[in-house]
Amino acid sequence: MLNADIAKRREAAISQGVGMQTQVYVDKALNSEVWDVEGNRYIDFAAGIAVVNTGHCHPKVMAAVADQAARFTHTCHQVLPYENYIRLGERLNEKVPGDFDKKTVFVTTGAEAVENAIKVARIATGRPAIIAFGGAFHGRTFMGMSLTGKVAPYKKGFGAMMPDVYHVPFPVELHGTSVDEAMEGLTKLFKTDLDPDRVAAIIIEPVQGEGGFYPAPKELMVQLRKLCDDHGIVMIADEVQTGFARTGNLFAMEGYGVAADITTMAKGLAGGLPLAALTGRAELMDAAHPGGLGGTYGGNPLGIAAANAVLDVIEEEDLCARANELGSRLKQRLESIRANTPEMVDVRGPGFMIAAELNTADGKAPNPDMANAIRAEALKRGLILLTCGVYGNVIRFLAPITVQDEVFAEGLDILEDSIAAVRKQAKAA
Fold first, then answer.
1. What is the pLDDT of residues 301-324, one digit of tens each?
2. 68: phi > 0 → left, psi -120 to 50 → alpha, else beta; which?
3. Residue 256, helix vs strand vs coil
4. What's a single GO BP term from this record (predicted)?
5. Based on the domain organization, do 77 and 171 belong to the same domain?
6. pLDDT band, very low/low/confident/very high, at 427 (cuts 50, 70, 90)
7. Which of 115, 281, 300, 359 has the greatest count of CB atoms below 10 A from its CB?
8. Are 82 and 319 spatial neighbours (Cβ–Cβ below 8 Å)?
9. Is the pTM of this model over 0.90?
């Protein structure tokens, strides 16, 4: 079986609306390595977009799923509930930042978690309006698209977005937007377009994901928390991509000294199985009437079993410390590369959620062509990379936090060689 043959079948069978970064068709995967149907080996620096933080097929996670599958795979918790669902809720209520009583709802995807967080904020406050940030990504459902601060490819051509959703600038010093300017954007919004007494929630990613891996400055989070408190606004932290040890803490908000009222999560929660959740203040989470939240597959038994095992692995293998160690090593290597690569204008990110931003050689314009060329060159050499950013000029690094030292070192060598090859090709052109 060949990748090219499957690609032809895919083209005939699957909507082109489902984008793809590679034509590598996977046969098997283990920890940080993937083998395709032709037997080619790849080092995975994507982790399914920060999903398999505990590595592909972690034995403890696989054992938990197998044990659960032998018992039952689905009953719908709303019909026949099960204990491990409750146990996972208890654990998240304890671990999600915030010194207050919490409750949890399980759903299936990150976008669904965000949708339900908005529902909770609206019913709890009796207010309709939502504020999000430019460059944000919150999903592909209509509310998710509306909240997302990037038009192409997420909003383009899909018609009118949901009403009462507003965007303000996200502070990125590299792009000339400060915290003061972001907060001034909120002040102007409240003066010209939106009564703050109509605002149900402000939603923010502690580190923007698709938007370019820009960490929210601590000063911004502190000021947002005060603004929300002053106006009775629900603060929602979208930790779908930042959660579960990726940033060096179980949740990125642990690094800010303030807590959100509701936290959304998915991706790394269940080690590759579809599971998402929102955890928040108990009085907010109880505002909805019975039946107003939930879903047929929400909290599927296999995903719940996997998630309990993932939390065990993170604790037992101290993956938060491991993320900080790996991130430090990655940043050092990237800074070494940057010293001889003028196009690499920034290296950033907490823990093991690291990005490198590329501009033209004069530093004046985003360079998505170079970012994509590096991704493609690395793929040829056996390294899976992802790009992101509003301009598509950011390479993001999301290897499993369990990546073996020798495989990590091999991947970094491929990365450096790929960057050198792309620069050489550009000079020769």
1. 999 999 999 999 999 999 999 999
2. alpha
3. coil
4. gamma-aminobutyric acid metabolic process
5. yes
6. confident
7. 300
8. no
9. yes
CA torsion sign for 46, 52, 54, 56 is negative
Task: State whether 295 and 340 are in the same domain.
Answer: no
Q: CATH number, domain at 242?
A: 3.40.640.10
Those residues whose C-beta lies under 8 Å from the C-beta of residue 332, and which sit 6 or more positions away, are none
The amino acid sitting at 56 is H
Per the prediction, the chain carries an average pLDDT of 97
In a shared domain, residues 231 and 97: yes
Do 275 and 151 lie in a common domain? Answer: yes
pLDDT in tens, 66-89: 999 999 999 999 999 999 999 999
Q: Phi/psi at 208 (nearest 5 deg)?
A: -60, 130
Phi and psi, residue 228, nearest 5°? -65, -40
Would you say 250 and 188 are in contact if contact means Cβ atoms under 8 Å apart? no
What gap in Å lies between CA 179 and CA 170, rounded to an integer? Answer: 8
Q: Look up residue 286 and give its two tokens.
A: 């109880």
66 CB neighbour count, 10 Å cutoff: 11
On whether both 284 and 408 belong to a single domain, the answer is no
Q: What are phi and psi for residue 396, nearest 5 degrees?
A: -110, 145
How does pLDDT run across 358-408, given as a tens digit for each residue? Answer: 999 888 899 999 999 999 999 999 999 999 999 999 999 999 999 999 999
Question: Domain end: 316, 342, 366, which one?
Answer: 316
Question: Strands, DSSP E only, in 139-255?
Answer: 165-168, 199-204, 234-238
Question: Where residue 389 sits, what CATH number does that domain have?
Answer: 3.90.1150.10
Helices of type H across 126-274: 142-147, 179-192, 218-231
Q: Which helix (H) or strand (E) holds 63?
A: helix 59-71
Tokens 């499957």 -> residue: 6
- Name the domain count of the chain: 2
CA Rg value for the chain:
21
Whole-angstrom Cα distance, residue 345 to residue 323? 23
3-class secondary-structure state, position 410: helix
- Spatial distance between the Cα atoms of 394 and 370, rounded to a whole number of angstroms: 9
Half-sphere exposure of 266 (CA within 13 A, CB side): 22
